[in-house]
């Protein structure tokens, strides 16, 4: 679930993460078979240095040997979809003739990684492949389902012939079984990088070392085979600063090369012989999807069609309104799961049954422990026929729920959910900081087991949602009226968010005086979840094709017209929707919601010292919870930031009138800036709680507060936001909130008490003086940046005004420190306006990303260091 963030998301995703870092934390119809004469050389494998090796011709066909000379009595044989033979260090496939040219799904997954790599259980790649026999050679090909056409159309043969399946590898056939099944030695298929099946991204490797890579084990199952291999990579050298030469002393030898080994599990899965009937995607309802380009459309162009991904659920009693499915969706709970959490994980999985009952299915979603041999002799957690909730011993506080699907139809075939052990740490920190002020159970540590169980169950329900085909719906948290989120009856019936698939955690709007049952603070299956499940899974028996389902699906989707909480994120929002925040509760009015949230944070921060046990340990837990509190504050401020230059969006189709984009009203944007002025740019003294900061490193609290202040300011004046403000001015005219007006409001927020009064009284505190200088730096950075920028006229005018005000107030200041500060500001503004003396600002550090770790579902705390230019994004 990779996210691309615009500047409007900074506070919600990047700003909010400041406090997590400190010196204590280191940083689709089946394509035709290949035609004779179309064979091409196998794709060249990369060399150890990462560059592709020279292309080589396929291995020549070999003379066939007698079967018993190849598969000798020493071979260990397993029967399954493909017959496997292991002979010393060689692996042979004996492929039944009926399996040749048939589509298979190949999946590569990282099952063990070096310390510090956040990829346990991650899918490296998946692709449809097949084995094709040609002249005593077995070709291993990738299969494309990108282009399709109705077979009855004249263009169908051209579409079929235009797709060439890539030959990924070629193997000489060494023998034939008595049934005519080819026998090939396939070890190198799993000990080299074939196509995009490479684990180098997991460890940031630059080349696979074949001498340290091998097949570890293999297993044959009725519908699949699994091969486990160990891949060892040479890694990119860690950058080290050069040491200055010392006369007469030899330079030290270069550091030895670094390596990393990864366990990779390959599964080859037989696709259903009869693809499931696909259901057309509608972007008003959230589903993951597969896509194809249809050249057989009656429209005057090729048409990209998308099918939702979903499980094949069919009623045992087709005519019954409510029926058990022929085959339920079952997750098996890993034996490594802490015993106390097993009932809660089962509860989290089966919570979805309320939604599937609305779609006409009873007991459709189940969770079971690993069965015994007597209960299921064929059960093996490594068999992709079984979906597992894996409990992974990792210090990463995260979880995720991917799935494998048939690209022809979108049918979900397998969904292994991964729960990292330290997800409990993340839930504890969130629960304490968000609702600790209103739940007495969260006011002493450790949290009770039953409470932690409920928090883990919530995570599981969310991840099961992904595994059922549902993506995130960040719009949902802004679709309930804010005033309802402290209403016990509403919370009991509707919850505080309409879907589990939003990043809307615990209800931080509730105040102690509301006396809300703590059970209502945790999200649950909501009306959107039920609606989306009905839309995607309810059978439409009267329709015979996906196209015939369209009118019914459109009618169901139109329920969103009258019930806003059934709406899904708009694909056109482009980061401009102020209701598309993550980690938000009640962002229908983020000013009200964040104001209530801050009230609770002020209560929580005073409770932290008393919550930590006096057991003789160090202050690490106190520091962690303090940073988590600061992170929550920054997150909530980010929700308010999104209003400035923001829009309310709706995803409307051609039969729905109305505006898709509606700018936030001028008054609402100014109210947001005023709120940020009061809560952020005026030094938040409550975050400098004496009983805590006396236990921290001296520089940390003020530095972290300033980091959030600077990051918010940078986001407020960035080019994307000013461009949106100018677009709103075009749309609304005099009713718009203009960029120059934003700059005036920020002048008041940052310098008001000293520049706008006729007489300067007192002096700004050190945190505020640092903020005032930082704001000038940001203005100069934007004014003198590269490229065209249509906001520079307003920026130049603002700097000129500030320069004059600084000079006038410095002359009248009787305070030595304040006068020196104002003179420094005046000097900096003058240099920023003079191209010959432009101040050289430190370049922001490069954005650091963690490769495919962006697939994680739950944000891992990271953020701004002391240098606000350093951005860590997930």
- pLDDT averaged residue by residue: 84
User: What is the number of E strands?
Assistant: 25
Distance from N terminus to C terminus (CA atoms, Å) equals: 10 Å
> How would a textbook summarize the main sheet?
8 strands, antiparallel
How much helix is in the residues?
25-40%
Question: Which parts are unreliable, with pLDDT below 50 for 5 consecutive residues or more?
Answer: 1-57, 842-854, 861-874
Structural class: alpha+beta
Query: Radius of gyration over alpha carbons?
Result: 31 Å
How many DSSP helices?
A: 22
The amount of beta strand, in percent, is 15-25%
Shape label: globular
Explain this structure.
With 874 residues, the protein is an alpha+beta fold. The protein has a domain at 67-237 and 257-277. Helix content is 31%, strand content 15%. It has 22 helices and 25 strands. Strands 4, 5, 6, 8, 11, 12, 13 and 14 form an eight-stranded antiparallel β-sheet that branches. Strand 2 (83-87) and strand 3 form a beta hairpin. Helix 8 (423-435) packs across helix 13. The protein is globular. The N and C termini lie close together (10 Å). Residues 30-65 are annotated as: Disordered. One of its GO terms (molecular function) is metallopeptidase activity. InterPro entries: DUF5117, DUF5118, EcxA_zinc-bd, Zn_MMP-like_bac.
């Amino acid at each position: 679930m990779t996210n691309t963030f615009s500047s409007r998301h900074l506070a919600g995703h990047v700003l909010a993460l400041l406090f997590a870092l400190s010196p204590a934390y280191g940083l689709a119809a089946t394509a035709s078979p290949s035609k004779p004469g179309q064979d091409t050389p196998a794709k060249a494998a990369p060399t150890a240095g990462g560059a592709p090796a020279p292309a080589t011709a396929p291995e020549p066909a070999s003379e066939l040997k007698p079967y018993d000379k190849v598969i000798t009595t020493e071979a260990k044989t397993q029967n399954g979809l493909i017959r496997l033979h292991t002979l010393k260090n060689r692996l042979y496939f004996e492929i039944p003739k009926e399996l040749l040219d048939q589509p298979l799904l190949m999946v590569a997954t990282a099952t063990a990684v070096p310390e510090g790599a956040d990829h346990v259980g991650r899918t490296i790649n998946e692709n449809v492949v097949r084995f094709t026999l040609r002249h005593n050679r077995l070709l291993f090909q990738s299969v494309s389902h990108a282009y399709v056409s109705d077979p009855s159309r004249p263009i169908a043969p051209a579409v079929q012939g235009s797709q060439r399946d890539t030959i990924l590898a070629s193997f000489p056939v060494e023998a034939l079984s008595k049934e005519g099944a080819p026998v090939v030695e396939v070890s190198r298929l799993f000990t080299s990088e074939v196509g995009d099946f490479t684990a180098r991204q997991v460890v940031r490797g630059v080349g696979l070392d074949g001498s340290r890579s091998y097949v570890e084990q293999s297993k044959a199952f009725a519908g699949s085979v699994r091969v486990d291999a160990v891949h060892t990579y040479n890694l990119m050298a860690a950058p080290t600063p050069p040491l200055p030469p010392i006369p007469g002393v030899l330079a030290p030898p270069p550091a030895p090369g670094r390596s990393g080994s990864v366990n990779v599990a390959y599964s080859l899965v037989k696709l259903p012989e009869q693809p499931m009937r696909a259901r057309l995607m509608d972007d008003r309802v959230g589903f993951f999807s597969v896509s194809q380009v249809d050249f057989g459309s009656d429209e005057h162009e090729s048409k990209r069609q998308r099918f939702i991904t979903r499980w094949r659920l069919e009623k045992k009693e087709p005519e019954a309104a409510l029926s058990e499915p022929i085959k339920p969706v079952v997750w098996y709970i890993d034996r490594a799961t802490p015993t106390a959490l097993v009932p809660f994980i089962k509860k989290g999985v089966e919570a979805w049954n309320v939604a599937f009952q609305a779609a006409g299915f009873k007991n459709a979603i189940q969770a079971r422990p690993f069965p015994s041999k007597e209960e299921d002799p064929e059960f093996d957690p490594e068999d992709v026929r079984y979906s597992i909730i894996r409990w992974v011993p990792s210090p990463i506080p995260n979880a995720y729920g991917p799935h494998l699907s048939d690209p022809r139809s979108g049918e979900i075939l397998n969904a292994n959910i991964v729960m990292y052990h330290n997800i409990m740490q993340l839930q504890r920190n969130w629960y304490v900081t968000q609702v600790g002020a209103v739940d007495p159970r969260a006011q002493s540590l450790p949290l009770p087991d039953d409470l932690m169980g409920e928090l883990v169950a919530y995570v599981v329900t969310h991840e099961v949602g992904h595994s059922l085909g549902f993506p995130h719906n960040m719009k949902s948290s802004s679709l309930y009226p804010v005033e309802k989120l402290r209403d016990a009856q509403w919370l009991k019936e509707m919850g505080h968010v309409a879907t589990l698939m939003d990043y809307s955690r615990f209800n931080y709007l509730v105040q102690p005086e509301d006396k809300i049952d703590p059970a209502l603070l945790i999200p649950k299956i909501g009306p959107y979840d039920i609606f989306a499940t009905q839309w995607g899974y309810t059978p439409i028996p009267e329709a015979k094709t996906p196209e015939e389902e369209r009118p019914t699906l459109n009618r169901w989707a139109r329920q969103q017209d009258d019930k806003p909480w059934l709406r899904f994120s708009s694909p056109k929002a482009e980061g401009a929707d102020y209701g598309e925040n993550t980690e938000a509760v009640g962002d229908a009015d983020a000013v009200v919601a964040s104001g209530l949230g801050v009230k609770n944070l002020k209560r929580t921060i005073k409770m932290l010292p008393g919550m930590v046990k006096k057991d003789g340990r160090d202050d690490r837990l106190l520091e962690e919870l303090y940073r988590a509190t600061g992170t929550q504050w920054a997150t909530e401020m980010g929700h308010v930031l999104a209003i400035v230059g923001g829009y309310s969006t709706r995803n409307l189709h051609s039969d729905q009138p109305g505006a898709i984009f509606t700018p936030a009203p001028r008054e609402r944007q100014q109210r947001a800036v005023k709120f940020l002025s009061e809560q952020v740019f005026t030094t938040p003294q409550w975050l400098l709680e004496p009983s805590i900061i006396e236990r921290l490193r001296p520089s940390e609290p003020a530095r972290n507060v300033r980091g959030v202040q600077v990051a918010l300011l940078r986001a407020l004046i960035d080019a994307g936001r000013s461009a949106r403000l100018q677009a709103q001015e075009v749309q609304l005219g005099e009713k718009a909130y203009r960029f120059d007006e934003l700059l005036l409001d920020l002048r008041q927020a940052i310098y008001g008490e000293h520049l706008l009064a006729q007489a300067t009284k007192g002096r700004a505190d050190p945190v505020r003086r640092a903020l005032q200088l930082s704001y000038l730096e940001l203005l100069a950075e934007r004014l003198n940046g590269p490229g065209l920028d249509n906001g520079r006229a307003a920026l130049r005018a603002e700097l000129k005004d500030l320069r004059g005000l600084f000079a006038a107030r410095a002359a009248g200041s009787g305070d030595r420190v304040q006068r020196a500060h104002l003179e420094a500001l005046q000097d900096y503004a003058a240099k920023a306006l003079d191209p010959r003396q432009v101040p050289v600002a430190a370049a922001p550090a490069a954005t650091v990303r963690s490769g495919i770790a962006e697939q994680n579902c739950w944000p891992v705390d990271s953020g701004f260091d002391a240098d606000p230019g350093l951005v860590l994004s997930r």
